Automatic annotation (TrEMBL):
Protein name (record): Transmembrane protein 260
PANTHER family the record matches: TRANSMEMBRANE PROTEIN 260
Record organism: Elysia crispata (lettuce slug)
UniProt keyword annotations, A-Z: Membrane, Transmembrane, Transmembrane helix
Spans traversing the lipid bilayer: 45-62, 92-110, 117-137, 157-180, 201-226, 238-256, 338-357, 377-397
InterPro entries with a match to the protein in the record: GT117_domain-containing, TMEM260-like
Protein origin, superkingdom: Eukaryota
UniProt-listed Pfam families: TMEM260-like
Length: 767
């Protein structure tokens, strides 16, 4: 009996191995064996099903996409398309050209909404193509549906398919390239040379959009050439045609020099009108060709690989991860029995891609914002992982169908429904951005408070990209002059953009550590020179009035948003920064601070921000915007505290600043409690509690002095007595430690709490 069972298992094993043949061979065998006509008709539905998959995915994406501007590079990409400019390296010319077409073709909606729709469209089409890829490899509709929807509905893919970014276009192009590779491997021999031309053209298009695709192309091209050579289809003529097809795919890169030569964009990156400038931009030399960002370091290969494996288990499910791991054996068996090598290449691609990316991803993923940057590049690997896992699922299901005689049943549909339902439910909670206007609100609310005709020098992606988009593309605050201070160090910056900013006087050609003249005659200047050249610069400007625009003569204030560049610090010896909403007003040293007047100007600048603190995922642009606006709510109070701590404790100014800081924080906390539905200590950021406790503690020291009594009696504000100040200090230090249990000063603050509590206990005993 034991021998009999072993013999049967070997027969089953042989039957399973034959199932690892490509879809077309499986179809041929089924037709040869006269399988039911209904099953053959089902296979003809693949394109209709693929279209349905794309339509369903598109409907989901459109229902949940951003209604306005998201964070990140979206603002920059749309401005480039809107103004005929160039985006940051490598320029993304294909995405820019397609965006330009959409901006002119779609008659309704804002520019950002139109490009968001474009991204959703490419993401949806990619989903349908993935279904076809999987079906062609295993002739299993259920596996195709599982794979396509698990990919398109995964949180990472869904998120970046609902905003104006290049990743959904990359998914579409790579899916088309993988489908071409599958058809090349299992299709008819006579079509393989034509498919090599199509694949070569797609390789060029992929590189015109996203450079990471080269890590797949380096595996596909040698494989195709080797197959053509074995089939005796490789000739000089075919090589030339393949090369021409590839060059045609790179044609979008002509946009870069054309844009630079035209020089009509109010904002652009780089000067590609010269060969050197073009190559610099193409190879991302300003960022580091093989790095994500310049002057950063990551956590190493092992940590990067562990992070990716954790990601696929979380985003694609443990089940998909398990089938992906099993695909190594499935692929080997398929290759042994049928000679089909496309899955071997797919496996090599995903391993090679992740190995290279984990090696070169030079960002610290312990920083949530940097982790978000790295995560986006995992999508490319996820696409192939899902294909491999789906084929494994189909072959394992076929194994059980043959083993238990279940061919007439479609249990795999029942198996996939809970998985897809769980994926949809989980991702919908994370990716529904239909009401997400956080970045838009940040930009519009902070732009609205600037004085007329201000000069805004931006720093960082959040203010630079959001301000620039609304200013250029939607015409918000046309009286302002907005310029990115961080690009001033590039020598192409002012030659390309100076003429569009007549309101700013640039004292040279580029920002440098020292001012002087370089060998080519260009003049360098410091940030101090720039501020000196524009500070208190007056002229005739236009302002918005009830009857439209009118010209007035006034001095233009200068604001730094958010902060000042860190390249050189010469300006610090002559200027200070005073907080103004999320930005800082640049003030010449020596100017007197009118505490009441500045408080009146700035106290209410961020009062309309209604989002609760810590209400967004850490590392998201929504979280960054929210944190900045909450900082703005208390910025003047914190500023007064910082200034006070630099003064002698017995000075009148010291007490006045502390007093106003206390009053501002008290009012801000009360307002936050009124707006919040919870009315708890979590209604404000943790550092508010710490700083308020510090203010109260400093006031305690002055509570018994004559100067204190004099100021307190003359103050219109109701400042508590000493005991109340002690209780407030104790309470807010406790709240801070509750919210920040791992703060570096935990021990010192805990000691202060114990001291304060002991003082209060003694007072209570004496009563």
């Amino acid at each position: 009996m034991a021998t009999g069972r072993l013999g049967n298992s070997r027969k089953i094993s042989r039957r399973v191995i034959t199932s690892y043949r490509p879809a077309e061979n499986v179809c041929d065998e089924k037709r040869t064996n006269s399988k039911s006509s209904s099953e053959n008709e089902t296979k003809q539905w693949k394109y209709q099903i693929a279209i349905s998959v794309s339509l369903v995915t598109f409907a989901v994406y459109v229902r949940t996409l951003h209604p306005s501007l998201p964070g990140g590079d979206s603002g920059e990409l749309v401005v480039a398309a809107h103004d005929f400019g160039v985006s940051h390296p490598p320029g993304y010319p294909l995405f820019t050209l397609l965006s330009m077409c959409v901006l002119h073709v779609i008659p309704v909606g804002s520019p950002i909404w139109k490009i968001n729709i474009l991204s959703a469209t490419f993401g949806a089409i990619a989903s349908g193509i993935i279904y076809i890829i999987i079906y062609r490899l295993c002739s299993n509709h259920g596996a195709g549906l599982v794979g396509s929807f698990m990919f398109s509905l995964s949180p990472l893919v869904w998120t970046w398919s609902g905003c104006a970014e290049v990743f959904s276009l990359n998914n579409f192009l790579l899916a088309a390239l993988l489908l071409t590779a599958v058809e090349f491997d299992i299709g008819k021999a006579k079509n393989r040379i034509k498919l090599s031309y199509v694949g070569s053209f797609l390789c060029g298009l992929c590189l015109s959009n996203q450079h990471t695709s080269v890590l797949y192309i380096v595996f596909l091209v040698p494989w195709v050439m080797l197959r053509l050579w074995k089939l005796e289809l490789l000739s000089l003529d075919s090589v030339l045609k393949v090369t021409v097809a590839f060059m045609l795919g790179l044609i979008p890169y002509l946009y870069l020099p054309i844009s630079s030569i035209a020089n009509v964009a109010r904002w652009t990156w780089g000067d590609q009108s010269s060969l050197n400038g073009f190559i610099t931009h193409l190879l991302r030399q300003e960022y580091g060709t093989w790095d994500l960002l310049k002057d950063h370091s990551g956590q190493g290969f092992i940590h990067g690989m562990q992070s990716y494996l954790t990601h696929i288990a979380a985003d694609l499910s443990v089940l998909v991860s398990s089938f992906a791991a099993l695909s190594m054996w499935i692929t080997a068996q398929r290759y042994k029995t049928s000679g089909s090598s496309v899955l071997v290449i797919f496996t090599a691609m995903v391993i090679g891609y992740n190995a290279f990316f984990c090696w070169r991803a030079n960002l610290d993923m312990s920083n949530p914002l940097f982790l978000k940057v790295v995560e986006r590049f995992w999508i490319q690997s996820d696409l192939v992982v899902v294909v491999l896992a789906s084929v494994s699922f189909a072959d394992v299901y076929r194994l059980f169908s043959e083993r238990f005689n279940l061919k007439g049943y479609s249990f795999h549909y029942f198996l996939m429904m809970p998985l897809l339902a769980l994926q949809l439910h989980r991702s919908l909670t994370l990716c529904n951005n239909s009401n997400n206007t956080v970045v838009r609100d940040f930009a519009l609310q902070s732009l609205a408070v600037f004085p007329n005709n201000s000069i805004i020098l931006t720093k960082g992606d959040l203010p630079s990209n959001s301000y620039r988009y609304f200013h250029f593309c939607e015409g918000v605050r046309p009286d302002l002059t907005i310029f990115d201070q961080e690009i001033l160090t590039y020598r192409w910056s002012l030659p390309m953009t100076r003429k569009f900013y007549p309101g700013i006087h640039f004292p040279g050609n580029f920002l440098h550590m020292k001012k002087g003249v370089v060998s080519n005659g260009q003049k360098s200047f410091t940030f101090l020179d720039l501020i000196d050249a524009n500070y208190n610069r007056s002229g005739f400007w236009f302002i918005r009035g009830k009857k439209g625009l009118k010209f007035i003569h006034r001095v233009r204030p200068i604001f730094a948003c958010i902060g000042v560049q860190e390249y050189e610090s010469s300006w610090k010896k002559s200027y200070d920064l005073w907080p103004y909403s999320v930005c800082w007003k640049i003030i010449k040293k020596g100017e007197s601070l009118d505490i009441d007047q500045w408080e009146k100007k700035t106290e209410h600048l961020a009062e309309h921000w209604h989002y609760a603190p810590n209400s967004f995922e850490s590392g998201s642009w929504e979280s960054v915007a929210n944190d900045e606006m909450w900082r703005a709510k208390s910025a003047t109070a914190m500023f007064y505290l910082d200034v006070a701590l630099k003064l002698p404790e017995n000075s009148t100014e010291y007490f006045e600043l502390l007093l106003h800081s206390y009053q501002l924080l008290s009012r801000a906390m009360k307002q936050a409690s009124r707006v919040s539905p919870t009315n708890s200590s979590d209604d404000v950021p943790s550092y508010w509690h710490r700083n308020f406790a510090i203010v109260c503690e400093r006031l305690i020291r002055r509570s018994s002095t004559d100067q204190y009594k004099k100021n307190y009696s003359n103050s219109s504000a109701s400042l508590p007595d000493q005991i109340t100040l002690v209780r407030l200090t104790n309470h807010h230090f406790k709240q801070f430690l509750r919210l920040e249990p791992f703060d570096p000063d935990y021990k010192n603050i805990k000691e202060a709490i114990n001291t304060l509590q002991g003082y209060l206990d003694n007072k209570d005993k004496k009563k």
